Amino acid sequence: MNQNLTLHWAPRMLSVLRIVAGLLFFAHGTQKLLGFPASEFSPEVLSLPWIAGALELVGGPLLVLGLFTRPVAFVLSGQMAVAYWMAHAPQSPFPVLNGGDSAILYCFVFLYLVVAGPGPWSLDAILGREAPPPPLTSARS
């Protein structure tokens, strides 16, 4: 693949990954706490599922906007690790059987955002909270 194309689009695709993950995560929060899309599940206030819904409802939009990306992603990564080990792992050691696939994937996507940052299409970048990455140089000399 053309290295210039990769260098140009890799940071932007990081932003796209952050935005899509944030939108999907936000949908989990709206379902738990706002009943949209409609669900029979309605957690009791201040229960663990309710707290998870609150984190999703607040953290999802912050990720979409790319605001406070690293600390938000850190908290949400931890939330997904806890969700996996408390809710899914006791059912089976196999994620495909215990329904924990998405919790694991979210955990590692958010952990990646902690390390990689929000990407250029973010409020963190616009506000100068994130320094632009240094230019990558070719490995060839």
Can I get a quick summary?
This protein has 6 helices and no strands. It is mainly α and 141 residues long.
Commentary on this structure:
The two termini are 19 Å apart. Helix 1 packs antiparallel against helix 2 (48-65) and helix 3 (69-88) packs antiparallel against helix 5 (101-116). This protein has helices at residues 3-34, 48-65, 69-88, 95-98, 101-116, 123-126. It has one domain (3-126). It has 141 residues and is mainly alpha-helical.
Q: How many strand segments?
A: 0
Radius of gyration over C-alpha positions, nearest whole angstrom: 17 Å
Q: Classify the helix fraction into a percent range.
A: 55-70%
Number of helices: 6
Low-confidence stretches: none
Q: What is the rounded distance between the termini?
A: 19 Å
Q: Which structural class matches the secondary elements?
A: mainly alpha
List the helices and strands and how they pair.
Elements: H1 3-34, H2 48-65, H3 69-88, H4 95-98, H5 101-116, H6 123-126
Helix pairs in contact: 1-2, 1-5, 2-3, 3-5
Keywords:
single chain; 141 residues; mainly alpha; 6 helices; 67% helix; globular
